[in-house]
Design brief:
Layout (H helix, E strand, L loop, with lengths): L2 H15 L5 E5 L1 H8 L4 H6 L2 E6 L12 E6 L3 H12 L5 E6 L5 H10 L5 E6 L5 E4 L2 E3 L14 H17 L5 E4 L4 H16 L14 E6 L14 H8 L2 E2 L2 E3 L12 E3 L6 H6 L4 H22 L5 H37 L2 H13 L3 H13 L5 H14 L8 H10 L4 H14 L14 H13 L12 H9 L22 E7 L4 H11 L6 E6 L5 H13 L24
Parallel strand pairs: 1-2, 1-3, 3-4, 4-5, 7-14, 8-9, 9-13, 13-14
Antiparallel strand pairs: 6-7, 10-11, 11-12
Helix pairs in contact: 4-5, 6-7, 10-11, 12-13, 12-14, 13-14, 14-15, 14-16, 15-16, 16-20
């Protein structure tokens, strides 16, 4: 179950079917993201793709010597744009590939528009999702709710199509389970099952010994995870700087050079990132120093060009040297900016209190620490939002709850009234009345005992004590202990046995902390294979967007869209 390999296979097949010769790749905005996540431009050039264009760019030049490989979503807009293109073709031939099912009516419409008979191929290749990692996919869909228990209709259709494409690309026809407490999870599960029933031949795959299981979850069941600051490299970059389709915008970094205003973070193209993306921040700083030392040694060797053989060696190694130079500059800049933000926003102290709220139950101690940070003026608007939200969730039913006092403190410290209201709304989105699980382990005697023993043993790292709720869901599903009353099957599921192959899909977004959890499970040697998917990959900014759309039915206003894989930046809350 490798999402990246599935998308790469489809794209390679498209290009191969177009045959030898110079080609242009025509895409829309979404398929551009799909392709860029798995194929660097340099690799595309090796496959004779010499030009990349958007289908909606009407100022494209006519180049009759090029073949056009068209890869787009089967939307009404794209079909109309294609029809216009075919009536007045700019290229010698067209190979049309749709990322999902296209209707017979639309195919007939395109055939009628092909008056010049330039269409050479039409196929459906099911890569209608963003493959962020082998174990992680996203739909880049932020703000999918319309009120607490309703879908935005376009978002429901997009989520259904995206999930169907994942299953088809991996050749899976799973049993479908969903979170019973969530109407949105039920509706998505039923929508997907309806689509599968309409296209039974597409999903007619050879069944394995144990049927894979898809579990549809709702973010509101665990709102703690997206509220926490992160301390692994990839997650920190997304939380503090923002990652969108493997790109990081560093234009706001003080003194950054022009070349580094936007950088690419891809494990397939960056060996240092691949080796360190899941490492803790303390380890990254040491590994950066090692990388710098290696670069300095190579830099000195490049300066010794005294003979023809030295020149030859220099020319042979220069591309690798230049690449290493770029890698060093990129990561030194990123780690430097992360360090600046950690210091400026007192994130070590803030994160310690976050973990206290998420993992422990001492109300008076937690409240005292929050008030101490407020008194010392150490909370940015974003971190005020985090801590107050976590406090409300943890001590929602505590007799001495002081949520009102903390929200009032937010106002006194200059937080906008909209952010204060939104922080208060976190309870409406994911409070005790909404959740069906014992998120904090305070109700189930077994959970309380586990927490007690964990406290007695101590913790290795106080900043990474928290474990996401989906860890419990995955563990129970693998052991066959996931309660049917809480996570029912759809009626025509073929199996009730435990499964080693799980697809977890989270409406409202997942986090890189959860991605790391799934990566660790897949590499544990247990034989369990988990694929994590979500409508988006969250940081605090995009999570608060989801809260806003759920409780008020509209997107957060004024948020700057510079994170992702998806969503507005944490900088919209004033953390930079």
């Amino acid at each position: 179950m490798d999402a990246v390999a599935a998308v790469r296979m489809y794209i390679s097949k498209m290009i191969r079917e177009a045959g030898p010769g110079m080609k242009v790749l025509l895409m829309d905005t979404e398929t551009t993201s799909i392709v860029s996540m798995v194929y660097p431009q340099s690799e595309m050039l090796q496959k004779e793709i010499y030009l990349f264009e958007k289908l909606d760019n009407r100022s494209r030049d006519s180049m009759k010597h090029l073949k056009a490989v068209v890869f787009v979503r089967p939307t009404d807009e794209n079909v109309n744009l294609l029809a216009d293109e075919l009536k007045c073709p700019r290229y010698c031939s067209y190979f049309l590939y749709f990322s999902n099912v296209i209707s017979k009516t639309e195919l007939k419409f395109l055939a009628e528009a092909d008056e010049n008979e330039v269409i050479s191929e039409v196929s459906e290749y099911f890569c209608d999702f963003i493959a962020a990692a082998p174990h992680l996919f996203s739909l880049n869909l932020v703000g999918c709710y319309r009120g607490r228990s309703q879908w935005q209709s376009a978002a429901l259709l997009r989520a259904t199509q995206g999930l169907a494409a994942v299953l088809l690309s991996l050749k899976l026809s799973p049993a479908i389970r969903y979170q019973n407490s969530s109407d949105t999870a039920r509706r998505l599960a039923e929508s997907l099952r309806s689509l599968i029933n309409k296209e039974p031949s597409l999903f007619d795959f050879r069944r394995s010994e144990t049927e894979p299981v898809l579990i549809v979850l709702d973010r509101s069941e665990d709102v703690v995870t997206p509220l926490l600051n992160q301390w692994t490299y990839q997650a920190m970059v997304h939380e503090l700087l923002g990652i969108r389709n493997n790109r990081v915008d560093l234009s706001d970094v003080p003194g950054v050079s022009k070349e580094l205003k936007e950088v690419v973070l891809s494990p397939d193209q960056d060996d240092f990132y691949a080796a360190n993306m899941y490492g803790n921040f303390g380890e990254i700083a040491q590994n950066i120093k090692t990388l710098m030392d290696e670069f300095q040694v190579k830099s000195k060797s490049q300066q010794k060009v005294e003979s023809i053989s030295d020149m030859k060696a220099f020319l042979e190694t220069y591309p690798q040297f230049k690449k290493m130079s770029g890698t060093v500059a990129k990561h030194v800049t990123i780690v430097g900016e992360l360090s600046r933000l950690i210091a400026k926003n007192h994130l070590l102290e803030v994160s310690e209190v976050e973990q206290e709220l998420a993992c422990h139950g001492d109300h008076s101690a937690a409240l005292h620490k929050i008030r101490a940070l407020i008194s010392a003026n150490k909370l940015s608007h974003a971190n005020f939002c985090r801590l107050v939200s976590l406090y409300q969730l943890r001590y929602e039913r505590h007799t001495n709850n002081d949520s009102a006092g903390l929200l009032d403190a937010m106002r006194r410290h200059g937080s906008e009234s909209g952010l204060v209201r939104l922080t208060a709304s976190v309870l409406e989105y994911g409070g005790h009345r909404v959740r069906s699980s014992d998120l904090f382990g305070t109700e189930n005697p077994i959970h309380i005992t586990k927490r007690l023993f964990k406290g007695l043993k101590g913790v290795e790292n106080i900043y990474t004590q928290h474990k996401p709720w989906i860890a419990t869901v995955i563990d129970s599903a693998v052991k066959g202990k996931l309660k049917e009353s809480v996570y029912p099957y759809l009626s025509n599921a073929m199996t009730r046995d435990r499964s080693q192959d799980l697809i977890i899909f989270v409406i409202g977004g997942c986090t890189f902390e959860e991605s790391l959890l799934v990566h660790s499970i897949n590499n544990s040697g247990s034989g369990v294979r988990v694929l994590l998917g979500a409508t988006s990959v969250l940081n605090l900014g995009s999570f608060m967007d989801e809260v806003q759309s759920a409780v008020q039915g509209s997107a957060v206003r004024g948020a700057r869209s510079r994170t992702h894989v998806d969503g507005p930046s944490i900088n919209s809350f004033g953390i930079s």
